[in-house]
Design brief:
Oligomer: single chain
Radius of gyration: 23 Å
Distance between the termini: 74 Å
Length: about 475
């Protein structure tokens, strides 16, 4: 029997979300002001987040992308390790495709699922993650839908597959029992259930029930951000529908939440990303993780392009996935470290090392970088700084040789991915400055030395590896 129909947002309402330029739209964000404890954009510089009433740079790493599936001591140890090295940020996609994972619906004795019965275990695990993260002041970026659960081998286990449940057939649902191609082709109608598309009420009711249960848990926590999809190739309307749905549920619960969509294309100037960037009233932050498929100077320029594009309505630009690992397909360990530090000094709202093998996770290398990020943040207030987008403060610089963030009159931070030598423009400064070097991989400072300001000063790292020079007022 088809479940009772739930109230639906009309197709016209969904399309109206994209009807006006971002500067002219209004009234889309819930009107209630979030409590100071909740994670939210920092009012003084909305490029960054505020959590527990203070500005924060979100940084992290983890050895899986769906940590809610971990239980017992394993989860606690991972979060303790992250917090112990200065991390405060994880990703959690609501995915069930890994061996041993539980799905969001109850499995019957015959092995099939009943979509009328949500899994208690699945949602208890989710609440356990949010609770343990909150106890350690760790922000969780939750992804509602992961396309990789809906194609190829994972689809064979997915409760929504007609042959895997007792609730409908292929004919009744419009879903096939096989989707053998890469999910990037977006062949599964699961992602077209909304009004204005297939308007498949049967499936949409089950989707609503799944998201409703998640929100009854997550809206009680102050440490949650929301992403609609992982690397989606779905339509703009699909993401907008779920973003609005989450916001409406939050408003009904008396809280404000912050949502985004994660697109698949690596080029941030592509039209896909403008579906998010052009609509800040709907998407209050942007996840630009796909820029981390780029390396070197191109990676920096991608981040700076987005910062420039969103200058009229600044908001956090998150990197919930920093790709790169020697044994993975998306770059090397060195690429991961460089992308992390270009994100930090490039003005990103968050940086997190992706899980192995596509990233370095919470490995010893990741731990060293997180410790060093904490040391840097103890020396300078990055949320009060501004990146030197075009590297105009540097002379004699080669591409990808050095990058600068500064708070004029107070401090400069210069990241060197490799040994090099540049000149830094300090002509606008006066008074007494000191310089010291942070050895990123050893998490140690060199002794400070006096710096002459009022002109150009030469900078060269004192050794191999990754270094950050900090010049600040004595």
């Amino acid at each position: 029997m088809q479940p009772p129909e739930r109230p639906l947002v009309t197709a016209a309402a969904v399309l109206l979300l994209f009807g006006s330029p971002p500067e002219q739209t209004g009234g889309s964000v819930p009107s209630n002001t979030p409590g100071a404890e909740r994670v939210q954009p920092w009012p003084e510089n909305p490029r960054y987040w505020q959590y527990k009433g203070r500005p924060v740079v979100l940084r992290g790493g983890s050895d899986d992308d769906n940590l809610f599936q971990w239980t017992g001591a394993r989860l606690s140890q991972q979060l303790d390790l992250l917090a112990g090295v200065g991390g405060n940020y994880i990703r959690n996609t609501m995915s069930s495709r890994d061996a041993g994972n539980v799905w969001p619906f109850e499995r019957l004795p015959d092995g099939r699922f009943d979509l009328e019965r949500l899994s208690a275990d699945y949602y208890q695990r989710f609440e356990g993650l949010l609770r343990e993260a909150a106890e350690r002041a760790i922000v969780v970026q939750v992804e509602l839908w992961d396309r990789f659960d809906f194609a190829r081998d994972p689809w064979q286990e997915n409760p929504y597959r007609p042959a895997s449940n007792v609730n409908y057939t292929v004919l009744e649902s419009g879903l096939a029992d096989e989707y053998p191609n890469h999910p990037g082709r977006n062949e599964n109608p699961f992602f077209r259930t909304i009004p204005g598309h297939d308007h498949n009420r049967l499936l949409l009711n089950y989707q609503h029930a799944q998201v409703d249960r998640l929100l009854t848990i997550s809206l009680r926590y102050d440490n949650v951000l929301y992403t609609m999809d992982n690397e989606t190739s779905a339509t703009a309307e699909w993401g907008a529908y779920w973003a609005r749905y989450v916001q409406q549920k939050a408003a009904g619960a008396g809280v404000s939440v912050y949502v985004t969509e994660m697109w698949d294309v690596h080029d941030l100037t592509h039209e896909q990303h403008r579906r998010t960037l052009d609509h800040p009233d709907l998407y209050q932050f942007a996840d630009i993780s796909q820029n981390n498929h780029n390396s070197g100077q191109k990676h920096w320029e991608g981040l700076q392009w987005v910062r420039g594009y969103t200058a009229g309505r600044p908001r956090p630009l998150n990197h919930v996935k920093i790709y790169g690992a020697d044994r993975g397909p998306y770059g090397t360990d060195r690429d991961a470290v460089e992308r992390f530090w270009r994100g930090l000094l490039g003005g990103a709202g968050s940086v997190r090392f992706h899980r192995p093998p596509s990233g370095i996770g919470l490995s010893e290398l990741a731990q060293a970088n997180l410790r060093s990020a904490g040391l840097l943040l103890g020396a300078v207030d990055l949320p009060e700084g501004e990146p030197d987008a075009g590297s105009r403060l540097l002379a004699d610089r080669e591409p990808n040789e050095a990058y600068v963030m500064r708070r004029k009159g107070r401090w400069y931070a210069v990241y060197f991915p490799r040994p090099g030598s540049v000149r830094l423009d300090l002509r606008a400064e006066a008074g007494s400055f000191r310089a010291r070097w942070l050895n990123v991989l050893d998490s140690r400072w060199t002794p400070s030395t006096a710096v002459t300001v009022g002109g150009w000063t030469d900078l060269a790292p004192p050794g191999d590896g990754h270094w950050v020079a900090v010049l600040d007022r004595e």
